[in-house]
Amino acid sequence: MAAGLRGRIAAVRTLVFIPAWNEEASLAAVVDDVREHLAGADILVVDDGSTDATTARARECGVLVATLPFNQGLGAALQTGYLYALREGYDCCAHLDADGQHPAAEVARLLAEVEADRADLVIGSRYRNPDAVLENDDYKPTFSRRLGTGVFRFFLTLATRQRFTDTTSGMRAANRRVMSLFSENYSPDFAEIESLQLAVRQGLRVEELPVRMLERTGGSSFLTPLRSAFFIFKGVVVLLVGQFRPRRVEAGR
Amino acid sequence: MSWLPSAAEATQVHLTSQTRIVAAIIAIFFMLLILELIRRDRLQERYSVIWFIAGLGMLAGAAFPGLLELVADLMGVRDTNVALFSIVLLLLLGLALNFSVIMSRQAAQITRLAQERAIEKAREQAGNGSTPTRGSDAAGQGRREPE
Fold first, then answer.
1. pLDDT at A161
2. Closest to A98 in 3D by CA, of A245, A216, A223, A194
């Protein structure tokens, strides 16, 4: 790239995408929050086949909307965002949940890490903050959530030899190396954990940053005890299988 | 183990010529059915190979009952019927796995298709001039060609 041109496009192009499945209640507030704290970023809502007015709500907000024709799971929705960011030539991208648990101000902190090139992929962790004072609306994990997190934390740390505390966090920021990896390989079923394992195995710099998360403002958690047990079992199997995948296919291309 | 009758001896009576004829007829009809399905475009050739092999196996078993007994002997099974059922079971297991593989591939293809369509829509929206985003200045100049 010519030096003169570089000066003009010095502003890093950033895409913030929000995977949403039936989140009409909380979406508008999340979009407003992102607009406020990430003024320069383009916003894309990935509607994962919602049956409510999520797409309409997003259009009313005046953001870009990618609507999947049917529900395909969080992994497929996130991959859509990464693919869009890659194709449209964004330098950085970040995503956060549409249910209002993730403050955009924290996403901005993650993006700053990526823009400073201190990491390829930055995860917002709700746990790695020992001296944080719990405020009233702060996130308090349930028992099954804590159990699952513990199991995943143990196995993922074992698999990657890197310490992770919040393996299922849906608040992340990434650069183009991650975009090209995730737009090709992203498990539709087990997006969060497997993708971390994959990124580390491909030699990317993955970093965790403690962030503040809130209680959800809309929707409800999909986790019931039985589902949690199945979720944990599936996650462990996925991690095990992931250990046998080839390393470093074409990282950093 | 000479006091035990050999597998072949114990089961020679099981496959009568009648069962052989019935099996052969079924096998031939089965293969004709597959041919007909291909001819009517109800079944793609690439998915029919495995069924043809199954049909040929059935036919071979009917035509040469000694073959089945030989296989039973090799498996160390005394009863030819047990050998037959085991083989069929394994074959079906293989077929089911084969379908799971095909299904997974198609699921991935469908997902990608849906994603491409969604991205195309979003791109249209972005290109319509109603680009709703703030940094639209940079969006115009900094755009790179998709790889």
1. 87
2. A216
Distance in angstroms (rounded) separating the CA atoms of residues A171 and A123:
6
Paired sense of beta strands A121-125 and A172-175, if any: antiparallel
Residues A177 and A93: beta-carbon distance below 8 Å:
no
- Looking at CA atoms only, how far is residue B94 from chain A in angstroms? 21
pTM above 0.80, yes or no: no
Residue A134 is encoded by which pair of tokens? Answer: 């719990």
In percent, the amount of chain A with pLDDT more than 90 equals 48
* pLDDT at res. A160: 86
Q: What interhelical angle do A74-87 and A191-201 show, nearest 10? A: 50
- Choose among B107, B135, B144: nearest Cβ to A40: B135
Separation between Cα atoms, residue B15 and residue B80, nearest integer Å:
9
Question: CA A110 to CA A175: how far, in whole Å?
Answer: 11
Give chain A's domains with CATH numbers: 8-242 (3.90.550.10)
- Strand order in A64-68's β-sheet? A64-68, A42-48, A14-20, A92-95, A172-175, A121-125, A206-210
Cα separation of B69 and A206, whole Å?
60
Name the residue ranges covered by the structural domains of chain B. Answer: 7-127
Give the closest-approach CA distance of A130 to chain B in angstroms: 36
Query: Do A87 and B146 count as a contact with CB atoms less than 8 A apart?
Result: yes
- Report yes or no: B122 at the A interface, CB cutoff 8 Å: yes
